[in-house]
Each structure stands twice: as structure tokens, then as C-alpha cells.
Amino acid sequence: IMDEVRQAADKVAGGAHFAEAAALLDQYNGPLANETVEPRRALAAEYKQRASAIAEQQRHATIARESRFKAFIDLLAVQIVAGQLATAQELVEKAQVDQEMADYVPRLSEIRSIIDRTRGSNERVIESFRSHIGRELPIQLNQGTLMLTVTGIEGRQIKCRQNLADGGSVEFVFQVEDLAAQEKLMRMGADTLPEVALGKGVMAVQAKAYSKASEYFAKTGPLLSGPLSEAAMNFDTKQAEERAETAAIKMMQAAGMKVGPF
């Protein structure tokens, strides 16, 4: 009987289901159940030990995968905060086909979608002028605010007419890059959208408004908000350290001290 019970347990354990095999032995109530209690307990203990070892291995493997994914997201956040959205997108695309990242494909797909939409923010800004065609309105440009009548959109160019004081007018064309930051921020849309919050956060970093950048990044969703906010503040610290180092070098050079490798 014990051989039959062992064979049945071994069959269950064959698929690494050691906990189930141990339960089968513990719960056996067939012929000679009382007479086989001790050998069944011993075998069940062996299976439980093997099940525990496998569970521990799986736990360590899960921790390692989570750690690798977190390190990847931290690296990704640094690229995004630095404005390297194309590089960030490429990193996500490579991670999506990495077998070691297979468990995280849904999350990676969500992140990639946000980055894709963020990279399309210029198109949204351009399209925001379409509803203004035929209207005269103040537009904030890098050169200052001008009263312009939007006459059309051609590719990435917004075509306008500027009325002059003498009654005449001139044709005026500008692109998204010519817009002042405030105008662009206003036309990007509501920062309740992750992609808009991400784009505005990157712009805030470029303007060295790191606290504001963290506010925007906090709205990018649970996958990115924490790492992005941390990267923005670290970016501020790094910039401060680099400025301090540059200032120290200049001071030493001014004092006639040798700076650099000896």
C-alpha cells in the first residue's frame, strides 16, 4: 500500500507540485492509513521541504525581476527628464522584446503609449490653432507677444497676418519652436492627461523649474510619477553640483592653481 501511495504522490510531485503531493500524503485515509502514518509523514515532510525551497527560489527570482524592472524605470526616468524622449522610447521598445522583462510587457506598453503621445504634443499644439483661423488674437512668441490673425495651417507652420498701424498688413509664419513656453504650455492641453503632464514636466526641467516639474510628473500615473519626480530633483542637485564644481575650478584657476590631471 505504501508503495502505491508513494507512486501516487510522486506522480503529483512530477510537475513540481510538491505541496499538493504532501497534502495527498497527509490526507490519505485509504487502506492501512493508520499503519502508514509515520512513513507518510516522513515523505510528506520531504515534499514540503522541496516545496519550500522552490517557493524561496521563486521569491528570490521575483525580487530580482522587480529590482531589474525598477532599475530600468529609474534609467528611463533620467532619460525622460533630460528631454531624451526618443532614447527613452527606444529603451522601452527593446525592453518589450526582452524575455527577462516578459512579465512587465503590459506596463511597458502603457509607458510606451504615454511617451508616444508626449512626442506628438507639437502636433496637438499646431492643431490648437485650427479653431482660431480667421480670428485675431495675442500670441506669445519668443520675440514677444504679437496680435496676429491666424489664416491657416500648412504642415508644421502656422500662417498668420499681422495688421500694421498704417492700415496695411504683412504675412507672418511661425512654428511651434517659435512659441514662448507659456503659450505652448497653454496649448498642450490639460495636465490631467499623463502625456501632457509628462511634456510639461520636461519643459519645466528645461526651464530649471524643478519643483514645478515634480508637480507635473506627479500626474503622469503610478508607473512613472515617483521615478520622474525623483529624477527631476536629482537633476537639480546634479546641476547644482556641476555649477559648484565649475565655480571652484574657475576660482582655483584665477588664483593660479593647477587644475586637472597632474
In brief, what are we looking at here?
With 262 residues, the protein is an alpha+beta fold. The chain is built from 10 helices and 4 strands, in the order H-H-H-H-H-H-E-E-E-E-H-H-H-H.
Task: Provide an overview of this structure.
Helix content is 61%, strand content 11%. The protein contains 10 helices and 4 strands; from the N terminus they run ααααααββββαααα. The longest helix is centred in the first third of the chain and has 45 residues, at 37-81. It has helices spanning 2-13, 18-26, 37-81, 85-96, 105-119, 121-127, 181-188, 194-206, 210-217, 225-254; strands at residues 136-141, 144-154, 157-163, 169-174. A 4-stranded antiparallel β-sheet has the order 1-2-3-4, with helices on one face. With 262 residues, it is an alpha+beta fold. The chain is rod-shaped. The N and C termini lie far apart (83 Å).
